[in-house]
């Protein structure tokens, strides 16, 4: 499995785990809007990662990866907004941690891409020996 496939599977697993978690929250809950936002943002992480891998340019790739990072951060926010029952608290903590790790991974991808771009633009030193 390539890194690309691994990250795609990880994003998909995150989205599925979020969906399983929200099934545990009572439907009459005051968190209905938070749940909708959480489901959307968690699914968007993987969807935008797939789009990034299908991009036509480095600029488009970077744009999509930025969206992945933003959506992972947003998912973390919505997870923190929901106060889970004691039985579900551990699942919630794990999801918050996974959202943080995904946002860091995408942040590292962004940093690496920007560093590569900067190296290509940097003027080369001429050795006058």
Based on secondary structure, the structural category is mainly alpha
Low-confidence stretches: none
Quickly name the level 1 CATH class.
Mainly Alpha
Number of strands: 0
> What CATH architecture label applies?
Up-down Bundle
So what's the overall shape?
A: elongated
The name of the CATH superfamily reads 23S rRNA-intervening sequence
What summary fits the major beta sheet? Answer: none
Q: What is the N-to-C succession of helices and strands?
A: HHHH
Strand share of the residues?
under 5%
Radius of gyration, taken over Cα atoms and rounded to an integer in Å = 18 Å
CATH topology: de novo design (two linked rop proteins)
- Mean pLDDT score: 90
Number of domains: 1
Tell me the distance between the termini.
48 Å
Describe the structure.
With 129 residues, this protein is an all-alpha fold. The protein has one domain: de novo design (two linked rop proteins) (Up-down Bundle). It has four helices and no strands. It has helices at residues 3-23, 32-53, 58-81, 89-121. Helix 1 (3-23) packs antiparallel against helix 2 (32-53), helix 1 (3-23) packs antiparallel against helix 4 (89-121) and helix 3 (58-81) packs antiparallel against helix 4 (89-121). The chain is elongated and about 75 Å long. The model has no long low-confidence stretch (mean pLDDT 90).
List the helices and strands and how they pair.
Blueprint: H1 3-23, H2 32-53, H3 58-81, H4 89-121
Helix pairs in contact: 1-2, 1-4, 2-3, 3-4
Summarize, please.
This protein is mainly alpha-helical. The protein has helices at 3-23, 32-53, 58-81, 89-121. The longest helix is centred in the C-terminal third of the chain and has 33 residues, at 89-121.
């Amino acid at each position: 499995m390539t890194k690309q496939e691994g990250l795609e599977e990880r994003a998909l697993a995150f989205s599925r785990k979020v969906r399983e978690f929200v099934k545990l929250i009572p439907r009459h809950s005051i968190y209905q809007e938070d749940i909708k936002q959480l489901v959307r943002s968690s699914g968007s992480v993987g969807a935008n990662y797939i789009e990034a891998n299908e991009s036509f340019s480095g600029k488009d790739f970077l744009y999509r990866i930025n969206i992945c990072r933003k959506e992972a951060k947003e998912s973390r926010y919505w997870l923190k907004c929901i106060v889970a029952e004691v039985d579900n608290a551990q699942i919630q903590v794990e999801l918050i941690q996974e959202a943080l790790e995904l946002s860091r991974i995408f942040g590292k991808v962004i940093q690496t891409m920007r560093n590569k771009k900067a190296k290509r633009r940097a003027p080369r030193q001429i050795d006058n020996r």
